[in-house]
Design goal:
40% of the residues lie in helices and 14% in strands. It has helices spanning 13-21, 46-52, 67-81, 96-108, 129-136, 161-164, 185-198, 220-227, 240-243, 258-271, 277-288, 291-311, 333-344, 376-390; strands at 31-32, 91-94, 119-124, 140-145, 167-173, 201-205, 234-239, 252-255, 325-329, 346-347, 349-350, 367-371. A 7-stranded mixed β-sheet has the order 2-8-7-6-5-3-4, with helices on both faces. The protein has a 3-stranded antiparallel β-sheet with strand order 9-12-11. The protein is globular.
């Protein structure tokens, strides 16, 4: 009566966390450091633009986005990565990137590779939509552990040819959620070369690209263009949720080669949901403005430095390069999260809720993920409680 292909999905991370913690009283005033929901202020003019265009809620929006929004996205890609894309054929707005990351698998994964079941390469730990997209297209998920030894990025080059020759898609998140690792130009070059050799597409989840310290992270499309790779080789996904503190706007984009975009758009026409026009009007202006992004990044830099000070003497602590999570080593993530909640009231996410068991072990089991999204003062209070509770310092 129901499809079996979803029967093995584990409970989603946050219901699972509530089941673990909510049967116990908090050990102190609650501080939420679990979900990556930005809490910095979004631009003050967002409301004015929304109000000025509210009448457009009375119209069906264009599936592929307004020409103005397509152009704003193409202009941002050119400014950020130095890559020219055709706004009419190579970009499409999304209802948040989760929609795009899922539907890209539906639109781009073939039923077979040389008569065999295709594989989809997935970093472990990972954003859970990667696995659901893979299961939905009846491909074989191949979870590749991203550990301290691999720079917290998956070593897809280590996979056997039998897996790589069947690969249709490879998901990659840079800056990485949850570890905050950034793919270097060399990493991108090697991954793109591997994809060219074995003829698979790279689905590059770059939602955290604008929260970093030091040099701005290189992008997959940027490096692929510099290499002269097949224009269809890389599909990139970006969002206004983290960049602009607008998670409730549900606005992002996908950009790719024209043939890939043709298939993604065709699926959207049949089964997708375009952004309401007032949301598109707001998005046009937000993608065009960088001042608020610089201010936002400075707030996160303060909290990065705060975390470095608080955890600098904790064995195994690795300062994140980008994003807004800490990936902290513990003996057991569930036990640590429960202890922290019952003794201090701080809520964090066990790393194993973001990863899967593999033959090489579960790379999330010995970690907790901590979101640095609250104000500086609340973040400092939460991190101090966490350090004193779990690390005894």
């Amino acid at each position: 009566m129901f499809p079996e292909r979803f029967s093995n999905l584990p409970p989603y991370a946050f219901p699972r966390l509530r089941a673990l913690l909510d049967v116990h009283p908090a050990g102190g005033p609650t501080i939420h450091m679990t979900i990556g929901e930005p809490r910095h202020a979004f631009p003050s003019w967002v409301g004015d633009i929304l109000a000025a265009n509210v009448a457009e809620f009375g119209k069906y929006p264009p599936n592929d986005g307004t020409p103005e929004l397509q152009q704003a996205i193409a202009d941002w890609i050119a400014r950020r990565y130095g890559v020219s894309v055709d706004p009419a054929t190579q970009v499409m707005p999304l209802n948040g990137t989760r929609e795009g990351l899922y539907n890209a698998a539906m639109a781009l994964c073939p039923e077979t590779r040389d008569g065999k079941q295709p594989t989809v390469l997935i970093p472990n730990p990972f954003y859970q939509v990667y696995a659901v997209g893979t299961v939905s297209v009846a491909a074989e998920p191949v979870f590749v552990n991203a550990t301290r030894e691999t720079g917290h990025l998956p070593d897809y080059e280590s996979l056997p040819d039998e897996i790589l020759d069947r690969a249709a898609l490879a998901y990659i998140c840079s800056p990485a959620n949850p570890q905050g690792a950034v793919a270097s130009r060399d990493y991108w070059e090697r991954l793109i070369a591997l994809a060219e050799k074995h003829d698979f597409r790279i689905l590059a989840d770059e939602c955290y690209s604008e929260i970093y310290r030091g040099e701005a992270p290189a992008g997959a499309l940027q490096v692929a263009t510099e290499m002269g790779a097949d224009p269809e080789r890389v599909v990139i996904f970006h969002s206004l949720s983290k960049r602009s503190n607008l998670p409730g706007l549900r606005s992002g984009f996908v950009a790719a080669g024209p043939e890939s975009m043709k298939r993604i758009r065709q699926l959207r026409a049949y089964a997708g949901a375009p952004l309401p026009l007032p949301i598109q009007r707001v998005s046009e202006k937000v993608w065009a403005d960088e001042a608020h992004v610089v201010e936002n990044r400075a707030l996160y830099l303060e909290k990065f430095e705060l975390a470095d000070r608080i955890f600098g003497n904790v064995p195994g602590y690795e300062p994140p390069q980008a994003g807004f999570f800490l990936w902290l080593p513990v003996e057991d993530g569930e036990a640590a999260a429960l202890k922290l909640w019952t003794e201090t009231g701080v809520r964090v996410l066990p790393g194993a809720y973001l990863s899967r068991d593999t033959d090489a072990g579960n790379p999330g089991k010995g970690y907790i993920r901590v979101a640095l999204v609250a104000s500086r003062d609340e973040t400092e209070q939460g991190l101090t409680r966490l350090r004193d509770c779990l690390y005894g310092q």
